[in-house]
Amino acid sequence: MSQPRPATRMPPQTDKPRRFVFVLLENFTLLSFASAVECLRITNRMLEREVYEWQVVGESGETCVSSSGAVFALDGGLEELGRDDTIMICGGIGVQAATTKKLLAWLRREARKGLVVGGLCTAAHTLAKAGLLDGKRATIHWENQDSFGEEFEEVILTKSVFVVDGNRLTTAGGTSSLDMMLKLIADDHGEETANAVADQLIYSSIRTDQDTQRLSVPTRIGVRHPKLSQVIQQMERNIEEPISPSILARDVGMSTRQLERLFRRYLNRSPKRYYMELRLQKARNLLMQTDMSVINVALACGFASPSHFSKCYRAHYQTTPYRERGSQSTRQPA
């Protein structure tokens, strides 16, 4: 099959290939890693020469297991890299446990050379733990946003699908690796090359760093009612300091009783109940993904007292926050 050739001006063929070093963490997300590598492979094919090369390494230097159970043979361990290399940390489930002291020491050492360092899926946590995102914009998978924001206040956290801030790259996981790699390819070899790669991937809607990672509120709840969406957005933005139903109703131009009927009709629960479930969901994320005390989790989710928090948590999840925290060592986080 003949291949379409992008009409972009190509660098001289004597140029040294740009090398990516993918660092696989235990339980890494396969989709994020594969999406990034495939973009590089297809670019080489489109340009009919090797403009990119890559290496897959990990702390063990031998094998690494993805979150899907697939086992990958590694090209090597955490060795010294060249100054022109680009590091891509590939995270996934349990990124906190996978971010070891050895990995952090290696990452800090290599970053001091001025290398471009990226974090795919949850690996923004690893970059932040190493201090590489201080004062920089970054993103991480939406399930990890609550815990990340609490732990790394010095990082400017966004909800974008990917972020490029200087020599630091982060993605939100899933197919967002495609979008970021296409951006890098466009920077290196022109937009037409990036578009040709996307076309080969049957990827018809390339997102930018201005796109957010989550579905819109109407799509998520399956209801297209503008005032209901506005109220839910307000609730999601104000978890630590909950807003009363009367103020929420007033802000969208309706009475408290009308708001109550709206929630009952479309969501089969009261505004107060829905708001409580949002706060408890955030609390559970913080309990499972951080070392925050139960008291601090309660305060971060708008509960004035630990006893009230524990009572509400037990009623919703049939267990107490303390037992939830104690059981997390035997389970993998979401």
From TrEMBL:
GO MF annotations, alphabetized: DNA-binding transcription factor activity; sequence-specific DNA binding
Organism encoding this protein: Sulfitobacter faviae
Keywords from the named record: DNA-binding, Transcription, Transcription regulation
Pfam family, one: DJ-1_PfpI
Protein name per UniProt: GlxA family transcriptional regulator
SUPFAM superfamilies: Class I glutamine amidotransferase-like (SSF52317), Homeodomain-like (SSF46689)
Stored InterPro entries: Class_I_gatase-like, DJ-1/PfpI, Homeodomain-like_sf, HTH_AraC, HTH_AraC-typ_CS, INH-QAR
Domain HTH araC/xylS-type: 229-327
